[in-house]
Amino acid sequence: MNIIEVKDVNLTLSKTEILKHINVTFEEGKIHGLIGRNGSGKTMLL
User: Fold this and answer.
1) Is 18 left (phi over 0), alpha (psi -120 to 50) or beta?
2) Is the dihedral of CA 18, 14, 5, 38 positive or negative?
């Protein structure tokens, strides 16, 4: 069972694309983490 499902999320701030067509599913009962470089949009996704 999925506890969180993100489908086709886009985010643009000041004409800069921050997130582009993000799709991710988080399953219930599992531990998840977001890994990426500084400025890659991890916090914006949350």
Assistant:
1) alpha
2) positive
Q: What tokens appear for 12 in the block?
A: 């643009």
Residue 41 gets which letter from DSSP? S
If phi > 0 it is left, if psi is from -120 to 50 it is alpha, else beta; for residue 44 that is: alpha
Q: What token pair was written down for 13?
A: 């701030």
- DSSP line for 1-29: -EEEEEEEEEEEETTEEEEEEEEEEEETT
Confidence of residue 40 (pLDDT cuts 50, 70, 90): confident
Range of the domain at 36: 2-45
What is the domain count for the chain? 1
pTM, whole model, 2 decimals? 0.70
